[in-house]
Design brief:
The protein is mainly alpha-helical. It contains 2 helices and 2 strands; from the N terminus they run H-E-E-H. The protein has a two-stranded antiparallel ribbon with strand order 1-2.
């Protein structure tokens, strides 16, 4: 039993506090994946806006979109994020022409 898990003999009903482990630093792959997800979501948002404006119907009160806006945004942003994650991961794991990974810096 480690020393920090030993109970205080004067107060056996109180458990010792666990010391939180420090967060691991972001790896280059994780940073690339997060960046890809962010920019993919932004691209999906822009594409959703374009699709909604193209599918809007002009009325005397302005343009009205007749479809399900939530579905358009959810699908476009979700697909954009997924593609961005994929591109970010591939960018972090670039392969040489012979199929081997590059040496770490």
């Amino acid at each position: 039993m480690s020393e920090d898990k030993i109970r205080n003999p004067e107060r056996p009903d109180v458990l010792p506090q666990d010391s939180p482990e420090p967060d691991q630093p972001d790896t280059p792959t994780w940073r690339a994946v997060k960046k890809g997800a962010k920019w993919g979501a932004i691209a999906g948002l822009v594409i959703a806006q374009i699709l909604i404006s193209a599918g809007s119907v002009q009325t005397p009160f302005g343009a009205v979109y007749v479809g399900n806006m939530f579905a358009v945004f959810a699908i476009c942003i979700g697909l954009g994020s997924a593609l961005g994650v994929g591109f970010g991961w591939l960018n972090a794991h670039e392969m040489d022409s012979d199929g081997s990974s590059p040496s770490p810096p």
